[in-house]
Design a protein that fits this description.
Bromodomain-like; elongated; 6 helices; mainly alpha; 194 residues
């Protein structure tokens, strides 16, 4: 079988997106674990960075569900740019430690989450550029994920996990912030119950 034929390229495209989704899910899992296990409340800008990551995920999930369409890729790219803008802003705000403006949370391998998110956003933009340059062939768009049962099962499992993570984060934000501006000093709704 010729590797340039549309079917293998379509399968490779869906596998590529699945791997991207797995990596983002791992990043979001680590952030959530640091929040719940490490007791590190995310700041408002950190929460916006999670929104950016979830937005990229939902663009990928839309591709799994509705097939390869420009709007799904566009959605992921817009959220990757949003992630980049928010993380650069926070990195620039916190780059010089001063009272009330130091990096929030622990460093992972010596790098704090806002700086990681700059690297993650740039990696996502590069990953999409590679995908569009190498795998986005018109003929391959005719194949849906359903035509690759093993990939489809894996995509459903990872999608369900991302939706669960998103739900956990949404409930956490409501508990932390209530329906007002977010703060990093504690869980507002839990404090008001005491």
């Amino acid at each position: 079988m010729n590797i340039a034929s549309p079917r293998p390229l379509a399968a490779l495209n869906y596998l590529y997106l699945l791997l991207m989704l797995l990596v983002i899910a791992a990043i979001l899992t680590a952030a959530t674990a640091m929040q719940y296990i490490g007791g590190e409340l995310p700041c408002p800008l950190c929460l916006l960075q999670r929104v950016g990551l979830f937005g990229v995920c939902f663009g990928i999930i839309a591709t799994f569900r509705f097939g390869e369409q420009g709007r799904n890729t566009g959605l992921s790219l817009l959220f990757a740019i949003f992630l980049l803008v928010v993380s650069v802003r926070q990195s620039l705000l916190d780059i010089y430690p001063r009272p009330g403006h130091a990096y929030i949370g622990s460093a992972v391998f010596g790098i704090h989450m806002p700086v990681w998110c700059v690297l993650i956003a740039l990696s996502l933009l590069i990953a999409y550029a590679i995908k569009l340059a190498l795998l986005d062939l018109r003929e391959a768009r005719a194949f849906t994920l359903a035509e690759f049962p093993t990939l489809a099962r894996a995509a459903r499992a990872v999608t369900a996990y991302v939706v669960l993570l998103c739900t956990i984060n949404l409930v956490s934000v409501i508990v932390q912030c209530g329906f007002d501006a977010c703060h990093t000093t504690g869980y507002r709704l839990l404090q008001s119950a005491h």
